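Page 37, continued from 36.
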């Protein structure tokens, strides 16, 4: 286990350190459970009360905190605590224990190219023509397909699969079970189908008859930029002719699905269980919260934020904040929801008014 002094941690986080800055820290912990070698994380005043329940000598605190009054021997003050967490967790991460070199049970094709200091775990397969950048970690049971390319310092956890001809940039992270480069879900019928009629009429299937579905093969692949992370169980389809594309810095959460030909820009966040249908285009700095759905062949502009469960059925201009099914601007959706909640009371009031008017007319 690696230890860091309070001063070392503060310097790395560009934060201020106070008190006995030579104390060695082994772990980060919640205040109530922190021990004498832990850094207690009490970055909000509401967590300060629980410091006394633990044995921490050092804590990371909010700006303006009186660390001495809290009974601490040292403190780190971070102006933006949650951002400081990113650096702190990186410093203290013990990793997954993957050893350097190629495990004897792994298969690396003689025509594959591995850069310097690549780690290949047990039962991993690296196919013919594949290229793996220097410093990369290929975890146990991973598969890298024919002529696929990974940039330097890729980090594949266990059981990640990357299909043929997929191209991935530097510092890629693939969480367990991520699947990149499967065939697109693309099928067609010999004559116009009921689905095609419904798309045109928004309801009427016309005279279409039942037919067999014929597969359209995926000739494209997947292109992924630098600093991208793909979550557990996420699935990314190949493009039909052109590649499916994910831009630099974009992060996909667990169980996200991208259909064929989808394009996502830079620095977007796609949260858990989001489904993006084929040929949709997502801009830069877009945030799609959990269980959002995006219709095929539409665009979502730069900077759009969609709340959880939102279903984007048509194009969304840049900068919009969306919510609901079908999606509308969030403030309008909330207003409509409030109005809907008031409907039962309104209906009762209308019924009472009708009754009063009826009785009044009856008396006259």
């Amino acid at each position: 286990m690696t230890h860091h002094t309070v001063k070392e941690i503060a310097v790395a986080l560009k934060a201020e350190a106070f008190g006995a800055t030579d104390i060695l820290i082994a772990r980060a912990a919640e205040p109530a459970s922190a021990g004498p070698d832990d850094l207690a994380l009490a970055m909000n005043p509401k967590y300060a009360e629980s410091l006394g329940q633990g044995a921490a000598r050092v804590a990371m605190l909010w700006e303006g905190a009186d660390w001495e009054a809290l009974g601490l021997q040292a403190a780190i003050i971070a102006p933006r605590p949650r951002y400081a967490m990113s650096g702190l967790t990186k410093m203290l991460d013990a990793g997954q224990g993957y050893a350097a070199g190629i495990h004897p049970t792994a298969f690396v094709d003689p025509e594959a190219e591995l850069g310097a200091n690549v780690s290949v775990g047990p039962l991993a397969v690296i196919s013919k023509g594949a290229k793996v950048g220097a410093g990369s970690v290929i975890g146990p049971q991973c598969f890298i397909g024919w002529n696929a390319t990974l940039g330097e310092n890729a980090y594949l956890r266990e059981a990640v699969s990357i299909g043929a001809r997929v191209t991935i940039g530097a510092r890629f992270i693939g969480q367990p079970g991520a699947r990149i480069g499967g065939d697109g879900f693309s099928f067609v019928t010999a004559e116009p189908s009921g689905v095609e009629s419904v798309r045109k009429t928004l309801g009427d299937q016309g005279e279409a008859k039942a037919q067999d579905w014929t597969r359209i093969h995926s000739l494209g692949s997947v292109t992924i930029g630098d600093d991208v992370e793909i979550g557990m169980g996420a699935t990314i389809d190949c493009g039909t002719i052109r590649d499916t594309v994910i831009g630099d810095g974009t992060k996909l959460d667990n169980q996200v699905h991208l259909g064929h030909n989808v394009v996502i820009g830079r620095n977007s966040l796609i949260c858990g269980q989001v489904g993006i249908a084929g040929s949709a285009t997502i801009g830069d700095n877009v945030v799609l919260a959990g269980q959002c759905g995006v219709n095929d062949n539409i665009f979502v502009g730069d900077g759009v934020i969609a709340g959880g469960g939102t279903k984007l059925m048509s194009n969304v201009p840049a900068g919009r904040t969306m919510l609901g099914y079908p999606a509308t601007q969030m403030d309008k959706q909330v207003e409509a929801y409030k109005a809907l909640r008031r409907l039962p009371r309104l209906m009762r009031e209308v019924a009472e008014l009708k009754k009063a008017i009826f009785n009044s007319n009856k008396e006259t």
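The first helix runs from residue 6 to 13. Flag for discussion at group meeting. The first strand starts at residue 4 and ends at 5.
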